[in-house]
Amino acid sequence: MFRSIVPGMEDETSLQGRMVICIPVFDDWECAIELLSRIDNVFSGLHYRPEVLFVDDGSIQPPPKEMDVKFERITKVGVLRLIRNVGHQRAIAIGLAYICENIPCKAVVVMDGDGEDSPDHITKLIERFEAGNCGQIVFAKRSRRTEGLLFKVLYWLYRWAHYALTSIKIQVGNFSLIPRKLLPDVTSTAEVWNHYAASVFKAKLPINLVPLERSRRLHGKSKMNIPALVTHGLGAISVFSEIVSARLLVATVMVGVVLLLTTSIVLSVQFFAGLAIPWWTTAGLGILMLLVLQLFMIALFFAFGTLQHRSAINLLSRRDCLQFVRCYEEIRSKS
């Protein structure tokens, strides 16, 4: 199923107009199929001829076998079917690994299949991609979200927690364009298995951002509930586990030093100045010191565990994704 392609060995002239659109899908075929016509319309004004690859993340509803539409620019629509549901981010990782090994192209566009990543914005990504000499990963920087108030509040809290733990601001999602020559770098990053965008930032690959508003979903409701969103957020933070462990360790030490100084001052006032200090003050400070000590030990073990994990052999999507692929199918056109 997989054939080895060495980046840089393909005929560059033959790849100039080839682009792959990678779209993970879980049962959202109505939205995904509607996207095809919009993608085809967008590329009618571009010199690229796209191939669309749907990554079927273990959908309960099978993908369609045929479509009642004929495309002008899209050359092929394929479905990479996985053996089971592995999650949105891992489906992206497997799709990118498959493209890296099997589909020669100039670049790859990663986008969601629900319409919230507008096909009309692909033009903006390509413009920035070509302006950067085709050597940078171009991400859509989210300037506005369209979700409800609860989601926006939770998302704001998540962004604050992410920045506090990693010192990195969240500005992007999955919507992006990857140059062919950087695809092996992305798929050889172990962290891409947990979170695509975060792994790119951690790997310090060349990045360019384009401010784009997030569109509304085409049909139905999102299958991402609160637990799934929390898991998604923790996956992004886990990519920076080394930074998180170090910051937690430093934070507990700083809090411990402040409490130790405060306790010393209180005891000094009580024993040397002769002032009466309520008994619960010293007792409370002692309890806080014990709690901080416990947090310090937890942070210390977490830091050592994270550093120990660096020597382990990690799963790489480019090397190990074959075991998650059931088959590749092409969607035919009736016209």
Please provide a written account of the structure.
The strands form two sheets. Strands 8-6-7-5-1-2-4-9 form an eight-stranded mixed β-sheet, sandwiched between helices. A two-stranded parallel ribbon has the order 3-10. The radius of gyration is 25 Å and the shape is elongated. It has 335 residues and is α/β, with parallel strands linked by helices. The chain is built from eleven helices and ten strands. The chain has two domains: 12-235 and 316-333, Spore Coat Polysaccharide Biosynthesis Protein SpsA, Chain A, CATH 3.90.550; 242-309. Helices cover 46% and strands 17% of the residues. The chain has helices spanning 12-15, 29-43, 88-102, 122-131, 149-166, 183-187, 196-202, 226-238, 241-272, 279-309, 317-320, and strands spanning 18-25, 49-56, 66-67, 76-82, 107-110, 137-142, 172-179, 207-212, 325-330, 332-333.
Task: Based on the model shown, name its key terms.
about 325 residues, alpha/beta, Spore Coat Polysaccharide Biosynthesis Protein SpsA, Chain A, 2 domains, 8-stranded mixed sheet, two-stranded parallel sheet, 11 helices, about 15% strand, disordered N terminus
